[in-house]
Structure formats: C-alpha cells, structure tokens
C-alpha cells in the first residue's frame, strides 16, 4: 500500500513518467502502470461488456430453453453446467466447457430472484409465545430412543421451556401447554404456531385456519389467541426456530442417558432455569433472560386448574374385553365386551369411559403389540367360567397379597378348588385387606376353604354403629304408658287353686 501511494504521488504531483518512476523505485513498468490506473476514473477505463461466444453462438437458444425449463424444477432435479455441456456436445457443440460454464453462471445470476428481506420483530411483555416440536435422540433405560421435544419460548423475555414425549399427538400438545403455563406461572395473550396437523385441521385462505376443537378448548381455557404462520415462512416464529438448534447443542449433545422419560423431563425443566439465569438477553444488554422474565411474569394471565388434556376417540371392546388404541390393547370390565366405549387418551395414562362412568384406567403404553391387563376386570367372567383361572392370561403374574396366593395354591390342588378360589377373589374385590387377614388366619388354622375364609371375613368386619334417631317433639307422648303385667292374669282360667302353669 505504501509503494502504491508513492507511485501515485510521483505521477500525480510531480508528473513523472511511468518509465522514470519504474527506474527510480526499481519496479516493472506494468506494476507502475497498474498502480497509476487504480487512481483513474473507472468510467475512463475500457471494460468489455459483452463476451463474444464464437463457438457457443449457434447453441445459445438451445441452452437458454434448457435453463428456462429446468428453472421451474426443484434444485435437485436440475442439470449441472457439466451435464448441460455434455448434452450440448451431443447436439453438435464443439467448443470448450469454460464457455458453457460462464454462460450458465451469468444466466442463473440474472434469473435468480433477489434475497428475501425480513423485518425485525418486537414484542411487548406477555404479548406472545412461540411453539414448535423437534426430534432428538436420547438413551432411555439403556435403549437409544427417538423422542419428540415440545419447545416454548416467550417472545419478550426469551424464557424457554422444553418437555419430551415419545410421539407427537394431540394429547401430547395439550399436556405440554399445561406444563409450560405452570412453569411460566401464567399464559401470554397470543400463541404463534406453524401448521402442525395435531392443532390445525385445515389451512384456508390467507391467515384463516380451522383448528382442532380440543386445541381450541385448550386455548379458551387459558384465554390464548392461536395464530398460525404462513406455510413455509419459518421466520414468523424465528425465535423458537433458532432455539431448536441451540437446545440440541446445549442440552442434547452429547447424547443424554436417563432411566425414564419423567426423569429426563425433570432434568430438562431444571436446565431451563439454569440457562435463563446464565444466558444474557439478546436485546437488553447487561440483563439475563431470568431477570427480564421476572418482570414479564406480571403481564401474564394467571392460571388456575390445569386443562383436562385428553384426546377422545370412540372404540368397541372386543369379545376378550380388550380395547385397541394406538396399536396397543387395554382391558376393560367384561360387562362392556362387544359394546362401544369412549377412550380418553392422556399423555401418560388412558381412561376408558362407558355409560357415563369410568370403566378402566391404565398407564399409557407406547410402541405396538402390547397389552395392559387388569385381572379384576375378568372376575364376572370367572364366576361363570372358574376353570379359566388356571391358564387365563390376565391372571398370570397377578400381584395379590401373600396369604391369598397361599390359599389359592392349596385350593387349586383339589377338585372344585378353582370355584372356591373365585369366591374368595370376589370377596377380595370388595375388601382386599380384610380377605387377606382372613386367609392368613385360615392358613394358621390349617383350614384352607372358601367357607372358612368367608366366615372369618364376616367375623372380622365390624358392623357400622347404629345411628341415633332423635324423636321430634311433636311425636313425644305427653303421658307415657305404664307397664302393668297384672293385666295378663285376666287371661288365666278362673278356677281356684289352679295356677298358670297348670292351666
């Protein structure tokens, strides 16, 4: 730079020639000439605007037609410059590849639309939050598992919350909102979503959407206005889009290892608090996310009871008293076999409702081909078919008190013992603890039989105390009757010397 400045000074101020300057500074004339020309007006220099194409000239129209047709295809379906060159050679082109490459580059630069301009967004405290799902990989109970992570971000403070689920379904979305609003201790006025199918049933014209009815019920419960982004416009919820990549780096790299999903979620909630305390706010210098969040909480709408976040579906119980849901099966009371039931699926449990009452409740199963049995659901069937107690699949591994299991083992060794066992189990369904004590006493007396056990159950049960009835004042007698047993003597024979016994 110093040499160039010296050359320009000698040529411009002192008027020395290029030959003289080259001799004085011991430079080549071309170097001096180049330094001098850099100071000249670019408009005075010769610039070749049109590159001649002597070999490509007759094939320009063909090449332009190809490029225009392929410009409407996805990028992965377009030919490269090398591919266009080889196809052009088959059409009779005899020139070099460089000419084709330069032409293709200039044509694509002219046809490429200008870069999209994004408008910076600003949000007031408590105004909005953004929501999205991401897919991560963790190790649960020793097995590598892919999970879905629901991610929330308050737009003003940048406070984040994440919770993991085995899959992405409507009931998971409902449960995630319950957890998030409890974590934030309030709900913002507006929620920004993409068009995920669990929430949006149909994308209509413009910003109009048809939301899932249960999702709308959730929004109404927390007084939140749902807003769906324009399709393929992730910048409308750019905060949570960026958060997905950050969370993957901060929390899920390297791969996490936990015994269960609840343990993972407890750790994630704790890490969200730690990140908020350590990360600076992206816009407010000198303040952390946690400090800004504490101020934003005053603008959030307080939450009361959580939303009853279940997804409801109609099913029919099979002849084996099983209800299928999400590729798994759950038992229900055998009285509902063959009848329609309603399945209420929560994130972690499944409730089966029929005739206005709860018929069964199970821990939610994930995967496929699994069956959740409740042996008590099959007791009414055992009353008619007691022999099924020996090999019935629902009764294998049945966790019963040790004394009941001992009585059952002794009874099943003799004829008719299965029916006696069913009688004891039916009594245990009503009062398990009392029956367990009765079975223990029967084993101690070495009298294992249903009659003895049921007799002991009746003796162990305490009758409820009789309620005291207060007689109303209007029904009280003013003159209570006097007992006079002598009135019965008038019924005796009136013979002298004959007593009542003789009569």
Explain how this protein is built.
- The chain is built from 17 helices and 15 strands.
- The chain has 503 residues and is α/β, with parallel strands linked by helices.
- It has 5 domains: 2-42; 60-109, no CATH class; 128-299, Ribonuclease H-like superfamily/Ribonuclease H (Nucleotidyltransferase, domain 5, 2-Layer Sandwich); 311-372, no CATH class; 380-460, no CATH class.
- The strands form 4 sheets. Strands 1, 2, 3, 4, 7 and 8 form a 6-stranded mixed beta sheet that branches. It has a 4-stranded antiparallel beta sheet with strand order 9-12-13-14, with no helix packed on it.
- The longest helix has 18 residues, at 261-278.
- The radius of gyration is 43 Å and the shape is elongated.
What is the annotated CATH architecture of the largest domain? 2-Layer Sandwich
Could you tell me how far the N terminus lies from the C terminus, measured between alpha carbons in angstroms? 152 Å
CATH class category of the largest domain: Alpha Beta
Helical content, roughly? 25-40%
Which SSEs are present, and which pair or pack?
Elements: H1 2-12, H2 18-25, H3 29-38, H4 60-70, H5 81-90, H6 97-111, E1 128-140, E2 143-154, E3 160-165, H7 170-184, E4 190-193, E5 200-203, E6 209-211, H8 213-222, E7 225-228, H9 238-250, E8 257-258, H10 261-278, H11 289-296, E9 311-316, E10 322-325, E11 328-331, E12 340-345, E13 349-354, E14 357-363, E15 371-372, H12 379-384, H13 388-391, H14 402-411, H15 417-430, H16 432-444, H17 450-460
Parallel strand pairs: 1-4, 1-8, 4-7, 11-15
Antiparallel strand pairs: 1-2, 2-3, 5-6, 9-12, 10-11, 12-13, 13-14
Helix pairs in contact: 2-3, 5-6, 14-15, 14-16, 15-16, 15-17, 16-17
């Amino acid at each position: 730079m110093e040499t160039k400045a010296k050359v320009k000074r000698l040529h411009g101020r002192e008027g020395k020639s290029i030959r003289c300057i080259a001799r004085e500074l011991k430079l080549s004339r071309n170097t001096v000439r180049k330094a001098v020309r850099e100071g000249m007006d670019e408009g005075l220099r010769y610039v070749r605007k049109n590159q001649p194409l002597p070999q490509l000239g007759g094939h320009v129209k063909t090449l332009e037609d190809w490029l225009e047709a392929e410009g409407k295809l996805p990028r992965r379906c377009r030919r490269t410059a090398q591919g266009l060159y080889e196809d052009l050679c088959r059409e009779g082109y005899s020139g070099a590849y460089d000419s084709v490459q330069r032409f293709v580059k200039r044509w694509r630069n002219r046809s490429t639309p200008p870069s999209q301009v994004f408008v910076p967004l600003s949000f007031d405290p408590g105004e909005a939050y953004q929501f999205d799902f991401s897919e991560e990989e963790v190790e649960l109970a020793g097995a590598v598992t892919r999970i879905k992570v629901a991610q929330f971000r308050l737009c003003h403070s940048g406070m984040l919350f994440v919770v993991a689920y085995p899959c992405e379904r409507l009931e998971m979305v409902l449960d995630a909102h319950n957890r998030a609003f409890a974590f934030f201790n309030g709900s913002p006025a507006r929620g920004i979503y993409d068009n995920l199918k669990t929430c949006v049933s149909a994308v209509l014209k413009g910003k109009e959407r048809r939301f899932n009815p249960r999702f709308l019920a959730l929004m109404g419960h927390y007084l939140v206005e749902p807003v769906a982004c324009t399709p393929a416009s992730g910048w409308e919820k750019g905060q949570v889009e960026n958060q997905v990549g950050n969370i993957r780096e901060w929390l899920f790299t390297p791969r996490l290892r936990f015994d269960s999903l609840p343990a993972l979620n407890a750790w994630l909630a704790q890490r969200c608090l730690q990140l908020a305390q350590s990360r600076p706010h992206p816009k407010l210098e000198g303040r952390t996310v946690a400090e800004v969040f504490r101020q934003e909480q005053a603008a959030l709408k307080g939450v009361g009871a959580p939303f009853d976040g279940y997804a409801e579906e109609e099913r029919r119980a099979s002849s084996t008293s099983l209800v299928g849901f999400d590729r798994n099966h759950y038992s229900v009371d055998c009285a509902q076999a063959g009848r329609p039931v309603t399945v209420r699926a929560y994130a972690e449990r499944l409730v089966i409702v029929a005739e206005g009452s709860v018929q069964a409740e199970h821990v939610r199963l994930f995967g496929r081909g699994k069956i959740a049995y409740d042996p008590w659901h099959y007791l009414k069937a055992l009353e008619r078919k007691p022999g099924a107690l020996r090999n019935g699949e629902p009764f294998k591994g049945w966790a019963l008190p040790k004394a009941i299991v001992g009585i059952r083992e002794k009874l099943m060794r003799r004829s008719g013992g299965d029916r006696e066992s069913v009688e004891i189990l039916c009594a245990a369904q009503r009062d398990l603890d009392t029956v367990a004590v009765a079975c223990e006493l029967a084993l101690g007396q070495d009298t294992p039989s249903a009659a003895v056990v049921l007799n002991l159950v009746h003796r162990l049960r305490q009758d409820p105390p009789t309620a005291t009835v207060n007689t109303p004042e209007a029904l009280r007698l003013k003159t209570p009757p006097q007992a006079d047993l002598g009135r019965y003597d008038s019924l005796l024979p009136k013979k002298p010397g004959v007593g009542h016994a003789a009569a």
